[in-house]
Amino acid sequence: MASGISLKHGLLTTKCSVFHSLQRNILPHAICIQRPTEVKCIRASTNSTAESRHNEKYCIDIVRSRDYDGFVSSLLLPEDARRSSLALRAFNVELAQVKDSVSQKTIGLMRMQFWKTTVEEIYRDDPPVQPVSAELWRAVKKHYLTKRWMLRIISEREKDMEDRAYRNLQELEAYSENTQSSLLYLLLESLGVKDVHADHAASHIGKAQGIVTCLRATPYHSSRRKVYLPMDICMLHRASQEDFIRGSREQNARDVVYDIASQAHVHLQHARSFSKNIPASAFPAFLQTVVLEDYLQRVRRVDFDVFHPSLQKRNPLIPIQLYFRSWKKTY
């Protein structure tokens, strides 16, 4: 009986061996068969990776085309913060171009409301299916970015839909603080920097950037019969909006530009006064000062003629200057 059982088990073992051998020979792909759930997971992972790359590329493209200086500055950030920086700058570009891309204020306000809702959904871990939103959500999850700064940028851009000149220089500075400085606060967070001196420097650099942006955009706005330069300074030098609309290069128009540019320079000097107390890890967020300084020097060389053709051309040496400043770890 014992031998019979042994033989029986032996036959069973042999049959099993033959079956597995046939399975390998006849069905060579059988060992690769996966359960439907496993296939779905692999497909989802592949789709997610492809979608993530698409979102990242979208942000890179929009920043490179609409904010080239910011794009180059972002490339010089530490790798851990680079992608988040591009997402934040893409977010800023999306908001900045609303005003010029809509024909009616109501449409612009609707788009601003979309971004307000988007930010709220991002912080609920439910971002809408949109490239910039997805990248922002990734940045928020990675660096625990402060929601208040994003909402402040949106709110200030929303108020700017009024489409009128700034009443005075202080109003332009407030706008710059709420937009450009808020963006810098977020960049500092993406670099892992929490420092009061760095925040003070970011505040001044943001104001300088907002002022310089206003000056740089003057020829473009004038071509569309719009002027956003502070009215108090224009009145001080008896320069009318019509003077800028027709591209005046008279002394009174230059004096307006001089006063505004001087205030931007003062903010840069204030920002640099904090440099000895700021951690080196914060310096990459302030590389944009290279671009601001370059414009202020060039506008001074043409005697503050904001319509001079040379100011409409991009300085090809900016990327080199940015790299050099990054290497020196200064701003």
TrEMBL record:
Keyword line: Membrane, Mitochondrion, Mitochondrion inner membrane, Transit peptide
Localization, per the record, is:
Mitochondrion inner membrane
Q: What is this protein called?
A: NADH dehydrogenase (ubiquinone) complex I, assembly factor 6
Q: Taxonomically, what lineage is the organism?
A: Eukaryota, Metazoa, Chordata, Craniata, Vertebrata
Which residues fall in a coiled-coil region? none
Q: Does the keyword Transit peptide feature in the UniProt annotation?
A: yes
Function, in words: Involved in the assembly of mitochondrial NADH:ubiquinone oxidoreductase complex (complex I) at early stages. May play a role in the biogenesis of complex I subunit MT-ND1.
Which organism was this protein described from? Oncorhynchus mykiss (Rainbow trout)
Annotated PANTHER family: NADH DEHYDROGENASE (UBIQUINONE) COMPLEX I, ASSEMBLY FACTOR 6, PTHR21181
Q: Point out the gene that encodes the protein.
A: LOC110513878
Per the similarity annotation, which family is this? Belongs to the NDUFAF6 family.
Please list which residues make up the signal peptide.
none
**InterPro entries given in the database record:** Isoprenoid_synthase_dom_sf, Squ/phyt_synthse
Q: Which GO terms describe its biological process?
A: mitochondrial respiratory chain complex I assembly
According to its record, what are the GO cellular component terms?
Answer: mitochondrial inner membrane
Cross-referenced Pfam families: SQS_PSY
